[in-house]
Amino acid sequence: MLSQLVYVSNRNRNCTEEEITKILTSCKRNNPPLQITGVLLYSDTKFIQMVEGESKVITQLYDKIKLDVRHSNVRMISYGPIKEKSFPSWHMGSRKIVGSLVDFKTEISKSDQEVFNKILNGQEENGVKVLGLLKKFF
């Protein structure tokens, strides 16, 4: 069964841009054989990631993600079955958020901006809202 998982975490200070490059390189190498797709948003202080694939593979991946020392306070926002992937050809898309400069693909409403701020502060737990907002980045 296909599943989708979204989590937020705090990026540790020792997680440099070089480490981000390593994360993305690893995803692009390891995800295709496991049929994992998804996106990673990151700032100087936060990670927001959505991954999708077979349920067992995603739960095993999340167990590994939680142990990664490059971030802390990993908090699952949503996890559940899906009918189809939201990002089927993205083995790991990424976008950096620099300060308050947020590069959305489309204009966002005030309510979407509020959801985004809640996500960054670890306060938003509605997976549908989070996914809708993630899609506006890509």
Automatic annotation (TrEMBL):
Domain BLUF, chain residue ranges per copy: 2-93
Pfam family name, one: BLUF
Gene Ontology MF term list: blue light photoreceptor activity; FAD binding
InterPro entries: Acylphosphatase-like_dom_sf, BLUF_domain
Name the record gives this protein: BLUF domain-containing protein
